């Protein structure tokens, strides 16, 4: 026993000596772990490296014009044979030609210049699509940060001026978290643009921390309830209560309510029963870069 204790003390002394000389978690160990010196948190370094790679991938896609919209239908509850409007979701192609959805890169670029450019491209493509298809209604995602971005504002103004019918068929979606970054700027922008006929949707409602005071002051026409409350709702009593409450808030402020991420028939039936106005999700159609209105037997949905 004493020999074992002596050996243990000797090993600890050697470890302490090693750390004092730059071993342990110092420069040598980090270099051995392939983490550059100065990055003392390997997880943070890995996340930062991944984000840099993601931004480079998106920048390459923008540079080579490998950016497109995928379109997903939003249907009136209980009337899945009709389409109220489509949401245009930004996509990029990576170096191998794979279509990359926004959820894979938007977090890495949201606060960067690349994020603003992606917003511009999404809006440009959405406005062009609306101009080409007169019976179409379309929603396009935007960040509140883009309101102060000159190119984005020029794109919006030019598109609305070029075709008088576009404004009343365009819906701009702003996420709850984005809107709350600069609520006063958002309300002023919405007040101005809504006078031209553009509608606004508050996206991912319930995922953030919207002040009820700002919700009252916002000019949102549509309230999209976040998918975390919707998936499996038919079997989840907690989400049933929460979604019913969120829908009640929407109705109180005279907003059309939309449930996101509807993937099952029983969930769709429950949401219809509690009075949700529209439904969106894979149960009714996946986002597609080849929308139905481009096919010979196209069914052009109009609300």
Give an account of the 3D structure:
This protein has 303 residues and is an alpha/beta fold. It has helices at 2-20, 27-32, 42-63, 106-109, 113-132, 150-162, 176-179, 183-194, 212-217, 237-252, 265-273; strands at 67-76, 85-93, 99-101, 138-142, 170-175, 199-205, 222-225, 256-259, 278-280. It contains 11 helices and 9 strands. An 8-stranded mixed β-barrel has the order 1-2-4-5-6-7-8-9, surrounded by 5 helices. Strand 7, helix 10 (237-252) and strand 8 (256-259) form a beta-alpha-beta unit. Helix 5 packs parallel to helix 6. The longest helix is centred in the N-terminal third of the chain and has 22 residues, at 42-63. The model is unreliable at 1-9, 17-33 and 298-303 (pLDDT under 50). This is EAL domain-containing protein. It comes from Roseovarius aquimarinus. Residues 8-17 have a biased composition (Basic and acidic residues). Residues 51-301 form the EAL domain.
Instruction: State the domain count.
Output: 2
Distance N to C terminus: 83 Å
The helix content is 40-55%
Instruction: Specify the biggest β-sheet.
Output: 8 strands, mixed, barrel
- CATH architectural group of the largest domain: Alpha-Beta Barrel
Q: Low-confidence runs (pLDDT<50, min 5 residues)?
A: 1-9, 17-33, 298-303
Based on DSSP secondary structure assignment, what is the total number of beta strands?
Answer: 9
Could you please say which CATH topology of the largest domain applies here?
TIM Barrel
Instruction: List the strand order in the largest sheet.
Output: 1-2-4-5-6-7-8-9
Number of helices: 11
CATH superfamily of the largest domain: EAL domain
């Amino acid at each position: 026993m004493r020999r074992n204790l002596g050996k243990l003390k000797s090993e600890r002394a050697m470890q302490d000596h090693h750390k004092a000389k730059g071993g342990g978690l110092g420069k040598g160990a980090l270099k051995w772990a392939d983490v550059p010196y100065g990055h003392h948190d390997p997880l943070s370094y890995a996340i930062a490296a991944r984000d840099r790679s993601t931004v480079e991938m998106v920048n390459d896609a923008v540079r080579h014009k490998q950016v497109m919209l995928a379109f997903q239908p939003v249907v009136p509850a209980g009337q899945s044979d009709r389409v109220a409007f489509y949401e245009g979701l930004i996509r990029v192609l990576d170096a191998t030609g794979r279509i990359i959805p926004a959820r894979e890169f938007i977090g890495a670029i949201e606060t960067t210049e690349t994020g603003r450019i992606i917003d511009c491209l999404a809006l440009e493509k959405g406005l062009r699509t609306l101009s080409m298809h007169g019976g179409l209604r379309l929603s396009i995602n935007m960040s509140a940060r883009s309101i102060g971005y000159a190119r984005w504002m020029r794109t919006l103004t030019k598109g609305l001026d070029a075709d008088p019918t576009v404004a009343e068929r365009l819906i701009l979606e702003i996420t709850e978290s984005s809107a709350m970054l600069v609520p006063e700027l958002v309300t002023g922008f919405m007040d101005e643009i809504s006078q031209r006929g553009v509608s606004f949707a508050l996206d991912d409602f319930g995922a953030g921390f919207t002040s009820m005071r700002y919700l009252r002051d916002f000019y949102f026409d549509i309230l999209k309830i976040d998918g975390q409350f919707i998936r499996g709702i038919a079997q989840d009593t907690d989400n049933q209560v929460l979604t019913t409450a969120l829908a009640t808030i929407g109705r109180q402020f005279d907003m059309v309510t939309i449930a996101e991420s509807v993937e099952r028939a029983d969930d769709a039936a429950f949401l219809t029963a509690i009075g949700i106005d529209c439904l969106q999700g894979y149960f009714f159609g996946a986002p597609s870069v080849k929308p139905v209105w481009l096919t010979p037997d196209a069914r052009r949905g109009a609300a």
